[in-house]
Amino acid sequence: MSLIAEEQMARSPEVSGETRTINLITAVTEALDEELTRDERVVVFGEDVGPRGGVFMATAGLTAKHGEHRVFNTPLSEAAIVGAAVGMAVRGMRPVAEIQFADYMGPAFDQILSQAAKMRYRSGGNDTAPLVIRTPSGGGVKGGHHHSQSPESYYVHMAGVQVVMPSTPYDAKGLLKSALRGEDPVIFFEPKRLYRAAKGEVPVQDYTVPIGKAALRREGSDLTLIGYGGVMPDVLDAAQALAAEGVQAEVLDLRSLMPWDKEAVLSSVAKTGRAVLVSEAPRTANFMGEVAYSIQEALFDSLLAPVLQVAGFDMPYPYVQDKIYLPSGNRIAAACVRALNY
């Protein structure tokens, strides 16, 4: 992450009052700690999340502070972890289930699709399943094909589930609190390569960030760059490189994928006439394909160039070619030049 991208992500326009600077993993830990303190219904569990604090130390110190009945380890069974969370949520608790890596959510797929996502609808609104599934997602840490995937598109397709992926400490803490205080199941993807790389100002006082609202990271008039999660530093680096050539790119961070902020996207693209969409998930059936369709459906006559996408490749996530697979600032800038020259 360049210094310029770090500065742009460090302070959100939404931040006010007394603040301090922390990284993204600390923001997650603080959100869990404060919600455990605020609401006795909150429990946190998963593989190694107890005394050890999890693989990435997101729950470090929470068992000692809140007790083993509130923050505890589970067997190595994702289906059991999510299944237990669904049952707890239906019975009035606020469970936070950690899946050690997003790549391992497959065994819990049916519990999410058939149970958590359907609970409100199948009960006619009498029951809800207000659970949060936290999971590290994405590449950039040389984790290979079983520890680097971006499976968010599978879950966006499930009616009844909210899907979130922050890129800053401010958003991580505020969105996680909103997820825990809501009435719907939320899958909370955490871009692991930003855990300690992303630092930013976070208010000292309690706050939330609304799910479903994008963040404007940079204003511009020549084209719109849209991303979310781990790609955001590269998106901002590309915008800065374009600025050096006299091109002013507007940058939107979606933050939430379901629901997503269609109004903010369409407003920006209507102004600029060009859009480049960036994510590290494989290109085919990528969530950004839905964003692209929505743009052309609403703004076809206003577009100055085709909506372009920069994404991961349709292949298993590579180990040695980790940096080649991810959308780089150069790949993003090249797509922007293509849009500008159309």
Describe the structure.
It is built from 13 helices and 14 strands. The strands form three sheets. It has a seven-stranded mixed beta sheet, sandwiched between helices. Strands 9-11-10-13-14 form a five-stranded mixed beta sheet, with helices on both faces. It has a two-stranded antiparallel sheet with strand order 1-8. It starts with a helix and ends with a helix. Helix 8 links the parallel strand 6 (162-164) and strand 7 (186-191). It has helices at residues 3-10, 24-38, 62-66, 78-90, 109-116, 119-122, 152-156, 169-181, 232-244, 262-272, 287-299, 322-325, 329-340; strands at residues 19-23, 42-46, 71-73, 94-98, 132-137, 162-164, 186-191, 199-203, 215-218, 223-227, 249-253, 256-258, 275-282, 308-312. It has 342 residues and is α/β, with parallel strands linked by helices. Helices cover 36% and strands 20% of the residues. The protein folds into two domains: 13-203, Thiamin diphosphate (ThDP)-binding fold, Pyr/PP domains (Rossmann fold, 3-Layer(aba) Sandwich), CATH 3.40.50; 215-340, Rossmann fold (3-Layer(aba) Sandwich).
